[in-house]
Amino acid sequence: MVQVEDLIRVRDLHKVYRMGEVEVPALSGINLDIRRGEFVAIMGASGSGKSTFMNILGCLDRPTSGTYFLEGQEVGSLTRDAWAHIRNRKIGFVFQGFNLLPRASALENAELPMMYNGLRGGERHQRALEALSLVGLEGRLHHTPNQLSGGQQQRVAIARALVNRPSLILADEPTGNLDSKTSRDIMELLHHLNAREGLTIILVTHEADIAAYAQRQIQFRDGLVVADKRSIQPSAISG
Amino acid sequence: MLLMTLRIALRALARNKLRSFLTMLGIIIGVGAVIAMVAIGEGAKALVRAQIASLGTNVLVIVPGTVTQGGVRTGFGGVRTLSDSDAKAIMEEIPSVALASPALRQVNQIVAGNLNWSTVVQGVAPEFQQIRDWQAEEGRFINQADVDGAAKVALIGKSVADNLFGNEDPIDAVIRIRKIPFRVIGVLGAKGQTGQGTDQDDVVMIPYTTMQKRIMRITHVQSIVVSAVSAEKTQEAQQQITSLLRQRHRIQPDQDDDFFIRNLSDIAEAASNSAKVMAILLGSIASVSLLVGGIGIMNIMLVSVTERTREIGIRMAVGARSRDIMYQFLVEAVVMAASGGLIGILLGVGSSTVLNRVAQWPTLISPEIVALAFFFSAAVGVFFGFYPAQKAAHLDPIEALRYE
After folding, report:
1. What is the pLDDT of residue B1?
2. Which of A14, A211, B242, B261 has its Cβ near the most Cβ atoms within 10 Å?
3. How near does any CA of chain A get to the CA of B21, in Å?
4. Chain B partners of A113 at a C-beta cutoff of 8 Å?
């Protein structure tokens, strides 16, 4: 059997917040390996440490101790600018609140990450168009976010996450602001991207039916991994 | 990259047109005020300089000194040692001296036809024209041939021409000075009054040789008018003239000078200094308003950074480095300040032109000050935009993304 390279390797990861005199532990020693092409759901109640973990995976926050290897490179201790580079090239974010620039069109929003890696205008445009048609928004290129439905806005956000061809998509409660029908559409889209495009997706959610789209469900509680289940066929996808 | 940052900045400014304009207004008024005030100050300085130049700042007048005879001191001119050869020697031997001309004066009654007029008759050399920068408006000035031949020719001042000839052409007319007929060869350009109210145009000029031989019947000269090569060289010229004349007049080291040298440079310096002080004062008052404009930019940029915290968070999440964010806000501040500066320049140039045309104020706009004002306004943008941009660049992306 071919050794599959771990995309993410986390060892004994701790995060402690200081609130004045009091130290509040958020992560208390996480060990986790995620392989390329996996679709992982991270679940847990609020305060379980899953958001902190996502921020560290996303190179937005620094662990107090422990190591985080992304594609074999220790990234937990890099500089702010090096993190910005990694976020730009290797990670695509999808947020609960979409986080689009309100006055920019769908196309401009999708082009945004490429503004920071020196791609030429023509190439930017091309890639943004491809990404938007992949998420089914080729007919809405020049609409601004307030002219789009919640589901469409989240599709723009997913297109934005894809344009720099990242190795990892981090989706933090991507369906939290959507109705159940639209949530299913978005999850189908993410499943499709994972299955057809081979994208590694890490999803944070507290809803079991959303987590059911992933092949692997990891349960967080009090800053520790308490359960890690894999299924060959995600239960939400029939056939 | 810069072009793109510029586009982002322009769009951000266009989003809040009124606010951007009001912020720019501070710079517009500041730069406009600087340009207009400096133009007025420079104009006043140039006017004062021109007035002083018309007096002749580099002009020295050598008059005979006083002598004391039996306890009685004569006034200036009591000795008769100055001669036209002194004037020639001064002009030829002293490098810091440009020109020298003997000058004699006497009040005389002038007769032309059936009219007569009392005025100052001056005997001068051709160099006098350049020393006093006094051109013949009509006809010509006295030339060397007139001096050599002690010709009976005269130039008349504007006031004399008006009083003796009215509307008639005085050229080639005959005037009589002490019954001696003189042919009028020219009319001097108007100089107006001196600071003391003396009418400078109430004058008749004749060759100094004619003055010596036919009018005054003397061989010495009453004074020598000298121009130094430049206003700065006046002091040097004065010293060199002193030693030359002492040597020519055979004055022993323990004896006093038998002449006295007067100059106008002190007055000139005082006048141009006061004009300079005014220009600096006007300029610095205007600069304060530019400073206030800069504070306005800083204020609005700080508001803008707070308002756009979430946007900053989004940009950071997709890979903007701190310096990308910093440039974005800095460029925005500079665009605002520099375009305010441009409009301010138009306003300043426009208003000083209006002041010049309508109120007849002398104004002078130098390209240097316009360039400086533009550069300064852009610098104000950098200076006052720096802190807000720095603040934006150091936001924590997690906090910024959570900001409502």
Report:
1. 66
2. A211
3. 20
4. 318-319
- ∠ CA B8-B9-B11, rounded to 5°: 65
Contact B147, B129 (CB under 8 A): no
Token pair 């320049």: residue = B345
Q: Is the dihedral of CA B314, B316, B317, B320 positive or negative?
A: positive
> Is the four-CA dihedral A147, A150, A155, A158 of positive or negative sign?
positive
Please tell me whether the interface predicted TM-score (ipTM) of this complex is above 0.90: yes
One domain for residues B72 and B162: yes
Cβ pair B314:A100 closer than 8 A: yes
CATH number of the domain to which A92 belongs = 3.40.50.300
Q: Is B235 helix (H, G, I), strand (E, B) or coil?
A: helix
Nearest to B187 by CA among B165, B209, B211, B216: B165
B67 and B186 fall within a common domain: yes
User: A-contacting residues of B 313-342, CB under 8 Å?
Assistant: 313-324
CA distance from start to end of chain A = 27
Containing structural domain, residue B74: 59-263
Residues of chain A with C-beta less than 8 angstroms from the C-beta of B313: 99
Asked if B76 and B31 sit in the same domain, the reply is no
Question: What is the per-residue DSSP string for B262-324?
Answer: EESHHHHHHHHHHHHHHHHHHHHHHHHHHHHHHHHHHHHHHHHHHHTHHHHHHHHHTT--HHH
Domain of residue A53: give its range.
36-65+73-230
B contacts of A117 (beta carbons < 8 Å): 319
Interface test with A, best of B311, B315, B318 (most A CBs within 10 A): B318
Give yes or no for a contact between A59 and A39, defined as CB atoms under 8 angstroms apart: no
Q: Checking phi first, is residue A145 left (phi over 0); if not, alpha (psi -120 to 50) or beta?
A: alpha
pLDDT-based confidence at residue B366 (cuts at 50, 70, 90): confident
- Are B367 and B51 in contact by the 8 Å Cβ rule? The answer is no
The total domain count for chain B is 2
pLDDT higher at B235 or A58: A58
Nearest residue in chain B measured CA to CA from A161: B318
Is residue B125 a contact partner of residue B102, using CB atoms and an 8 Å limit?
A: yes
> Comparing B48 with B352, which gets the higher pLDDT?
B352
Q: What is the mean pLDDT of residues A69-96?
A: 93
Residue A23 lies in a domain: no
pLDDT band, very low/low/confident/very high, at B196 (cuts 50, 70, 90): low
CB neighbours of residue B295 within 10 Å: 12
State how far residue A238 is from chain B, nearest Cα, in angstroms. Answer: 34
* Domain count within chain A: 1
> Which residue, B263, B281, B304, sits at the end of a domain?
B263
Residue of A nearest to B314 (CA): A99
A124-144 per-position pLDDT tens digit: 999 999 999 999 999 999 999
Q: Are B207 and B274 in the same domain?
A: no
Q: Which residues of A touch B321 (CB under 8 A)?
A: 80-81, 84-85, 116
Please list, in sequence order, all residues whose beta carbon lies within 8 angstroms of the beta carbon of residue A133, skipping any fewer than 6 positions away.
Answer: none
